[in-house]
Amino acid sequence: MNEAIDFSDIPELGDEFFSRATKRGPRVQKGSVVIDRDVYEWFEANIPASSDLISKILRAYMQEQQAKSAAGSEGQGIG
Q1: What is the residue-level pLDDT of the chain in tens, covering all 79 positions?
Q2: Could you give the number of structural domains in the chain?
Q3: Could you tell me what percentage of the chain is helix, strand and coil, using 3-state DSSP and rounding each to the nearest 5?
Q4: Is position 62 within any domain?
Q5: Which of 19, 53, 65, 69 has the fewest Cβ atoms within 10 Å of its own Cβ atom?
Q6: CA-to-CA distance for 42 and 35, rounded, in angstroms?
Q7: Domain ranges, residue 44
Q8: 76 vs 20, 44, 65, 66, 68, CA distance in Å?
């Protein structure tokens, strides 16, 4: 522990806290996706926080497909 930190004004977490506490999983699931090298390199070179943008692009596509599916459309593939 770092002796320079003053913990005197922080209450201890007692048994009551831990009896009600729940464990939560991570918000983000990390995995691997294969992306063409030129596409990846372009995003990395040109877009700050490119991973976030790639995730937003994929989410937009997913939501579009979900909306089409909910409307009863066929053809869920790309292109």
Answers
A1: 578 888 888 888 889 999 999 888 777 778 888 999 999 999 999 998 888 899 899 999 999 999 999 988 555 566 5
A2: 1
A3: 45, 0, 55
A4: yes
A5: 19
A6: 11
A7: 31-69
A8: 44, 29, 6, 9, 8
